[in-house]
Amino acid sequence: MCREAVSIGANTFQFFTRNPRGGAAKDVDPEDAREACRFMEEHGFAKILAHAPYTLNPCAERPEVREFTARTMADDLRRMEYTPGNLYNFHPGSHVGQGVDKGTELITEMLNNILTVDQTTTVLLETMAGKGSEIGSTFGEIRRIIDGVQLSGKLGVCLDTCHVFDGGYDIAGDLDGVLGEFDRVIGIDRLKAIHMNDSKNPMGSRKDRHEKIGEGFIGLGAFEKIVNHPALRTLPFYLETPNELDGYGREIALLRGMAK
Ligand code: FE
Ligand code: FE
Ligand code: ZN
Predict the structure, then answer these.
(1) Overall fold of domain 2-258
(2) Are 17 and 48 in contact (CB under 8 A)?
């Protein structure tokens, strides 16, 4: 994955820790992991971002699903220590009718069970589009989760541009305003990563359909502001656009070309 990233002009990448639909992960080969760390160091990589499987739901109603989620994430975090000091992103979850209060309680309970003092990985809560009963589509909901976690120093936030736009934050028209609100509600120092996606739908539509950069309702002008914003420009950016490898290469070149 490191070499593939370099081949398209990237200096970081996001990957699934296992099949995105869940299931078992391969055993970590410690020598492989060390080699990857050396390669990334040599090539000046930014932090890499692991993404938890989509099937996990920390605030599911069924206890078996919550237990599976906690077990999987704890296992992922153990594996992440073979490539120390990187990032692990997860979706806070869908409360499926239990309500935001109960959902938030379940998410914080899980994090309190799996985070460890010794881990070097920062766990990121992803901002969500608000589809169905997703928690985390407002900055306030993210803040409440962080507030309930004892080892909150291990937590950060990954801002997904499509999701926040879908959630009603006008990053296309008022990026400064949105980031100002993020800072007031969560604290800008919690922001550790950006998922770069345009949106197939207008602001506030809560649909979560990613579009290629510049081809959706967020638009190229907004992405130019995003890559150059003083609060964002030093953060790692990860593309999740509907593309094959060559398409990602073109988007990386496009975004690099806009950076001043
Ligand atoms: Fe995600
Ligand atoms: Fe995302
Ligand atoms: Zn999405």
Answers:
(1) TIM Barrel (3.20.20)
(2) no
Q: How confident is the prediction for the chain on average, in pLDDT?
A: 97
Query: In this prediction, what percent of the chain has a pLDDT beyond 70?
Result: 100
Query: pLDDT band at residue 1, thresholds of 50, 70 and 90?
Result: confident
Ligand nearest to the CA of 51: 1
Compute CA distances 184 → 104, 146, 148, 174, 180, whole Å: 20, 14, 18, 16, 6
Q: How far is the CA of 128 from the centre of ligand 2 (A)?
A: 8
pTM of the model: 0.97
CA distance 49 to 76: 12
Give the closest ligand to the alpha carbon of residue 163: 3
Residue with the larger pLDDT of the pair 18 and 56? 56
Residue spans of the domains in the chain: they are 2-258
The rounded Å distance from CA 69 to ligand 2 centre is 18
Instruction: Give the residue numbers marked as catalytic.
Output: 21, 51, 54, 91, 126, 160, 163, 195, 208, 210, 240
